[in-house]
Amino acid sequence: SRTPVVVTNVADESISSGGHVQSNELQSIAVQAVPGHCCASVGDRIYLFGGTDGESRKCDVYCYSCTRQEWERVMVQRCHGGHVSEPPARSGARSVVYEGIVYIFGGYTKKDGDYFNDTWAFNPLYHTWTMLTAAGDVPSRRTDHSMVLYEGSVYTFGGFDGRNRYNDVSTMELPAHGAFREGSPMARWELVDGPATRAATGQECPSPRFGHSAVVHGSCMYVFGGWDGHDTLNELWEFNFPSGR
């Protein structure tokens, strides 16, 4: 059903870094169907970002309280520089949670261009976004990839940029929570598994794809399904984090 869910008008308060109580206003709004969004849970709350209504991409943040069983729209607050900073509108981004911070990577705004490879961090306590400074082997722009968390690092696999499909694995160690006090932390990426490493080892690997799913169990990432541009896939692949293959 595409019936919108109407939320109540509520307000939330948090303690700023200066010790002052600040009101984070949450607007009463109807939550429309937005395919292509990403979700992450922090405590008893589920945070929803982005997606599309079929006409345009979104950069809104919504919060669902599992305790109160109601939706709220989160009003993004001013960050360290005194201005409101937030990711460009998009769908197809992926998210993880680490030390209470929601991280998103990638996505796109238009099918014929405007694909992203930026990394943003959302602080649910202060309702602020921070864009991480990228360095190292940053993955190319893409959407509909997968992203998982393992021992404090994110791992991305696959994706699509409007022309090319990917099957590379990249990783980035996430910053400690305190790193955000000084502004934009560094996001240093490393290519773990790609064409060059596979040519050297001769290892078998999944075909390039997007729209698949990935989960972590033990010390492995499991990837299932996706679309390779010709066929819908039903393969299950295992990637071992310690060995990098």
UniProtKB/TrEMBL annotation:
Entry-linked SMART domains: Kelch
Pfam families per UniProt: Kelch_1, Kelch_KLHDC2_KLHL20_DRC7
Segments passing through the bilayer: none
Keywords tagged on the record: Kelch repeat, Repeat
Top-rank taxon, per record: Eukaryota
The UniProt record lists the keyword Endoplasmic reticulum: no
Name of the protein: Leucine-zipper-like transcriptional regulator 1
Natural source organism: Perkinsus olseni (Perkinsus atlanticus)
